[in-house]
Amino acid sequence: VNECSTNNNGGCAHMCQNTDGSFTCECRTGYSLSSNGKSCTDIDECSTNNHGCAHICHNNDGSFTCDCRTGYRLASNGKSCTDVNECSTNNNGGCAHTCQNTDGSFTCECRTGYSLSSNGKSCTDIDECSTNNHGCAHICHNNDGSFTCDCRTGYRLASNGKSCTDINECTNNNGGCEHVCQNSAGSFTCSCRAGYRLASNGHSCLDINECSDNNGGCEHLCHNTAGSFTCSCTAGYSLASNGLLCI
Ligand SMILES: [Ca+2]
Ligand SMILES: [Ca+2]
Ligand SMILES: [Ca+2]
Ligand SMILES: [Ca+2]
Fold first, then answer.
1. Which residues have their alpha-adjacent CB atom under 5 A from ion ligand 2?
2. Which residues contact 192 (CB under 8 A, 6 or more apart)?
3. Distance between Cα 115 and ligand 3 center (Å)
4. pTM of the entire structure?
């Protein structure tokens, strides 16, 4: 009697194998025969050594699949897991500046002068000037990615890029002064030789007319000259040795 061809597949859940005088039930790959000799039960392949899956083993009815943690992809052998290089895909990993691949993840980095934003991807300019003027002696100008030092009027930036050195204005065309140029820290002043006074423009020198003040001290006649004056006497008198009186 072929029990398999009658009695509803011999009562076997999967396959019925007729034998001489009897029959046996068999199960498809991934199933084991139950103790009743007819039913088939899924084998949980994952229960033993993760079934060779490097990361995650998902059991399912009749089989199993390997899976990988975030940041990895399943290798072609279906079991190993390979790091995903997020930097080579996804537009530089979404990093504004530099993308650094790591095993299972990646990090964004920023160029000098920028700090990584809280979103971990954007880069924000560092305001170097906000801390101690960043060492600039006078003025610190922040800019995108860097900063520059600057000096107040009358100073030039030293070669170290931070200190400020007084400009000696007098070395260039005497500072525009007609007579004397006096350099000072951050500025300069013009002055005039004796007998002259500084004009309102601060540079030119104007002759002082000594004769207009008390006749220059002359007893008779006062003659103004450029930078000085002389006295003289009317007819019949001669100038005393002090140059003022007439005798
Ligand atoms: Ca299974
Ligand atoms: Ca990675
Ligand atoms: Ca900056
Ligand atoms: Ca100066």
1. 83, 101, 106
2. 178, 179, 180, 198, 205, 206
3. 10
4. 0.62
